[in-house]
Specification:
By secondary structure, the chain is an alpha/beta fold. It has a single domain, classed as Ribokinase (UDP-N-acetylmuramoyl-L-alanine:D-glutamate ligase), CATH 3.40.1190. The chain contains 10 helices and 14 strands. Helix 4 links the parallel strand 9 and strand 10. Helix 1 packs across helix 8, helix 6 packs across helix 7 and helix 8 packs antiparallel against helix 9. The longest helix has 15 residues. It starts with 7 loop residues before the first strand and ends in a 5-residue tail after the last helix.
């Protein structure tokens, strides 16, 4: 799959504020000091792309309050386009997460009452000139509630009409979904529209409403998608194309937290495809990006630049 390198990537999903107890290793119950970071899966993915030399615009709704202003400033700091982010009445709130930098029994407490990102609507999508973008990336949490759900399908329809590649991180979170049946049906419906699907074993299980998500991944490669990445944590990943099945391991590191790996993988993988690397090398670079991030505090703040990623890949070996 080739991308027009003269254009940006469009990223649809949420942005938020992450709060980490300091110093690393401190439990939330024992905290005296915190550090703050830009958070939210879509925003983190944008940062990962930016750090690796690929420009993107974020599409979301952000609360018109001090936390929202913090988000806009952080997006600017990381060179992420925010012109398509809509300020929304502060009765809808920006996501705030309190996350421990602890590997074992990690506590991540999420505050998502009246989430403003789920107020994304079709009018927001109509403001987008899709011809300005080489691909559209969708974070699956945006599907969990209306009107955001309908906006995502509308965006996918507009991109498809222009033959713009669609990429989705399944990004399942348990909140807001009405039922398991609806959740499964919505995921399957949107997956049929995607060119690239990225998800872990839990997410594919949920989409299949079963414990056989791997079979769903194998089945869907016979539909529109040309690449499906089935992540299995410490067991690596399986990658399906219409021609072959590939197996990948992981880069073993001394992790200090489990969070941020998925967003880092997205940025490393997509930026590498965008820059012309092979599928195999893109998977490895995405995995390396993820391995780096779990060794640092934060998610967006932990994303490596190109030189750090290259150094890591040259010094480390992926283990099967």
């Amino acid at each position: 799959m080739k991308f027009d390198k003269s254009k940006k990537l469009l990223v649809i999903g949420r942005a938020g504020m992450d709060i980490y107890p300091e110093p690393p290793g401190t439990k939330i119950s024992d905290v005296q000091e915190f550090s703050t970071h830009l958070g939210g899966s879509a925003a983190n993915t944008c940062v990962a792309l930016s750090k690796l030399g690929v420009s993107s615009d974020l599409v979301t709704c952000i609360s018109d309050d001090a936390i929202g202003e913090y988000i806009f400033k952080k997006l600017e700091d990381f060179n992420v386009g925010s012109n398509l982010c809509r300020r929304i009445n502060k009765k809808f709130q920006t996501q705030v997460a309190v996350v421990e930098t602890i590997l074992k029994n990690n506590q991540s407490i999420l505050y998502r009452n009246n989430s403003c990102d789920l107020q994304l609507d079709k009018e927001d999508i109509d403001k987008i000139n899709f011809q300005d973008y080489s691909a559209v990336f969708i974070s699956g949490t945006a599907l969990s509630s209306s009107p955001s759900r309908e906006a995502v399908f509308y965006a996918a329809e507009k991109a498809s009409l222009l033959s713009i590649p669609l990429i989705m991180d399944m990004d399942y979170r348990p909140y807001n979904w009405e039922s398991d049946e609806i959740k499964s049906n919505i995921y399957k419906k949107i997956m049929k529209e995607m060119d690239i699907i990225i998800g872990n074993d839990l997410e594919f299980n949920i989409a299949n409403n079963s414990t056989d998500g791997l079979q769903l991944a194998k089945d869907f490669i016979n539909e529109k998608p040309s690449i499906i990445i089935y992540k299995m944590g410490e067991k690596g990943s399986q990658v399906f194309t219409k021609e072959k099945e590939l197996n990948f391991g992981i880069f073993k590191v001394e992790a200090i937290k489990p969070t941020g790996a998925g967003d880092a993988f997205n940025g490393g993988f997509i930026s590498s495809l965008f820059q012309g690397f092979s599928l195999e090398d893109s998977i490895k670079r995405g995995s390396a990006n993820a391995a780096i991030v779990v060794t640092k505090v934060g998610c967006s703040s932990a994303m490596p630049g190109s030189s750090e990623l290259e150094k890591f890949i040259n010094q480390q070996t992926m283990e099967i």
